[in-house]
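To: structure subgroup
Subject: Chain for Friday's discussion

All,

I'm putting the inputs and outputs inline so they're searchable in the archive.
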Amino acid sequence: MRDAVLSGLGDHGYPGLTIEYVAEHSGVHKTTLYRRWGGLEGLVADALDMAGEDTWTPPDTGTLEGDLRALAREVVDAFDDPTKAAAPTAFIAAAFQSPRAADALRAFYAERFTRCEAVIARAVARGEATADTDAAALVRAVSAPLMLRLFVTREPIDTALADQSAAAALAATRAGAFDRPSTPKNR
């Protein structure tokens, strides 16, 4: 089912994806699709949920700078090839049109941010970041300039921009910009 949804999103985007397409490409009757998933929103949300069950792990280059650069370059790699970019682009577009897809996309990225906590834990152990560093905020900062260009201004992205985004996020980390507020101490 997931493959049919991904294929349909890649071929037609969310607006062009139909239950008929998924039924035809999955070999499952459309009444079964409606009964189990309730419609396209459910199919897309389920495909996103399944995407979050992959084995992706954040990079471990030996430095926070290298890890951030590698994360940013992964974004470039994911969207550099139109064939690879079709499904993630369609998922993001679907999130603007479907509350269930938006919830599933949010959960997908929350899981990714949780996995990236290992990057910060290693950086803390090496003395490159404070224990208060918010991993999710840092990862968002690395990818935000890239996503802005991809989905808002529709500008191209490349490894130079990825490296620049990583360097900016690293400088902000060193300045404590992503530190969670400290818990007030009892007096």
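Points worth raising on Friday:
The longest helix spans residues 135-153.
The mean pLDDT is 89.

D.
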